Amino acid sequence: MTRERKHEWGAEQVAPSAAMLDEVARKVFLQQLAISFDALRISNSAVVLISSITALVLWTSELRPWILAWLAMTVLVVGYRLGIARTFAKSAGPTVEENISYWHRQLLCGAAMGGAVWGFGSALLYDMDDLLNLTVIPFVLAGMCAGAITTLTAFTGATVLFLGFALLPFAGRMALEGGVAANVLACVTLVYFAFMVNFTRRANRVLVGGLEMALLRSHAEETIKKQALFDDLTGLPNRRLLQDRLAQALARSQRQHTHAALFFLDLDNFKRVNDSLGHSVGDELLAEIARRIQELLRDEDTAARLGGDEFVALLTDLSADGEELLTLVRRRGEELRRAVELPVRIRGNEIHITVSIGISMLDERTTNLEDLLKHADTAMYRAKDDGRNTLRFFESSMQEALDRRLGLENDLRSALDTGEGLQLYLQPQYDESMGIVGAELLLRWRHRGRFIPPDQFIAVAEDCGLIYRLGDWVVEEACAIGARISSLANDRAFSLALNVSPQQFRDKAFTAKVLSGIEKWQLPAGLVELELTEGLLIEDVEDTVSKMQELRAHGVRFSIDDFGTGYSSLRYLKSLPLDTLKIDQSFVRDVLSDPGDASIVNAIIYMAKTLDLEVIAEGVEAQAIHEFLAAAGCGKFQGFLYARPMPLEEFEAMFRVPGSCVQLTSAGHAL
Ligand code: C2E
Ligand code: CA
Ligand code: CA
What we know:
This protein has helices at about 20-60, 65-90, 95-100, 100-125, 130-150, 155-175, 180-230, 240-255, 270-275, 280-295, 320-340, 370-385, 395-420, 455-465, 465-490, 500-505, 510-520, 535-540, 540-555, 570-575, 585-590, 595-610, 625-630, 650-655; strands at about 260-265, 300-305, 310-320, 345, 350, 355-360, 390-395, 420-430, 435-445, 450, 495-500, 530, 555-565, 580-585, 615, 635. The chain is of the alpha/beta class and about 675 residues long.
């Protein structure tokens, strides 16, 4: 069975989004704050040390009050700044983030005060007549400013404030002092200020740029890591991460002698949601299903998405054993199934989706993890085959059946490539006087020396999509056969019945293919009859009716195959361009022994008459059955009683003899 390639979800995110850039900018700002506050401890210790030394060096009795006042101011400012730094360090991340501008203001304020301490100190304490003072103050001032640049450079504003408050009062004082030397010193101070501001801006750019780069890189690395291990759409682990978790689960189950269960979930008919409501609704549905699965799992379990509508749930550390374990796992599987089954509302649509679940168990004896996934997948297919919306445990017989089926699919594909082994047999259909009035074409495939029943390989072809090619082959071949028979038939009424799979009939090109075959072989009107099933007539009625009408306009006849086993309503029967009802062989077989079947057969014949339709009984195996049917008013007959399906040449030989009829054991083409 080929797995349908489903839509791949989620585009890769390559370029950073605007939201992400905002986030980076915010993080950088926080880091700038952290760097600045962190540097305050060292820089303020330096301030205390240097101001103390400066005070000692400058100590004279005239300056004493000023020095003491200055020292007191310094201690206050240092205390304030260290206090702020401490509170900042203690505040947890989100608190800082919420008050980001408060902290920024505090920092600027502290920087201004720090600068002011030196600015006013130097302005107050400067003495043009004292050589020591003359050298020490500018030297200390320049040193402090250089130091401030290194510690405050994370914010240009803070550095500029510090420099401004530190240098401008001194420059002002020099300007007021007058005299050449003082004026020169004032100018030098201003130049120094400008130079330092410029330098600060550059240093700041380098620092902030570096921070941004580092953050962007770590963000990119995180995204890459996430994309490599997580599914974009649902946020669930992907196949790769699941494999890791599986390996861990295996190791744990070996160590602790516990079990684990792997659930393979595949949504039923998910494609329909995509086709009818669009991919974005499909995406939302997948995300919701993922959420529901995740919600049901414990922390130690893993939910993963393998792609498309396939999910996996890995339940680990299950300590139960035997029956108890299986009951537990089944219960958990049922919980998952029911959770998916609950309707989902998306953009005004109420969506009902179901899931098929395959389960494989992992224990100490498990060796191959790939097999485990494969087994759960196989069991999931069994759940699908058994009618969907259910769960199945893996059994080794399933794998064998699946392998056989896969083999059959491959062989059927090559048979179609070469046309080898495929053949249409004809089973004659008779009227009341036992004249051949038609034949049903039945597909035969000789595979590895034996015939495979069409019931088997047609189901496989329908499953894997080969039915279209197979159906096309049947139509072409049937038209060629039709041409040969109609040349023999002269004016005898004759119809050639083709079995049509519902899928094949729904193919957009189906009508055109049939009509082009009819035209190519110049087949007379009424020769080609298509056997449709009741199911096809009920589903998608509009499309079916319009196709039938188009074909009918070109002389194609229609019959309902296996009539009585489906749910056709009388209303449909009346409105469809039908010619024949074909009573299902299960009723015919037991018509003599089962009064219920007898009444059904009678009712169908009566109904056909009322609706002005022909009626044919298939599967007639005994003379007594034939008599019953004839008495009930059935007009046409087909079955082993008259003839088995046979190759064209044999049919032609039989057809050439007018009135060729009943032979209970025909030429030995029993299949
Ligand atoms: P069906 O359309 O109901 O075909 C009638 C089946 O009953 C045929 O089986 C035929 O050989 C068998 N049969 C005829 N008379 C008797 C009888 O007296 N007794 C019993 N027990 N059986 C009788 P076959 O050929 O094995 O085909 C099985 C099914 O495979 C068909 O059922 C049809 O659904 C499908 N099939 C066959 N050929 C084609 C084809 O070309 N296209 C499609 N889509 N389906 C086909
Ligand atoms: Ca049929
Ligand atoms: Ca049938």
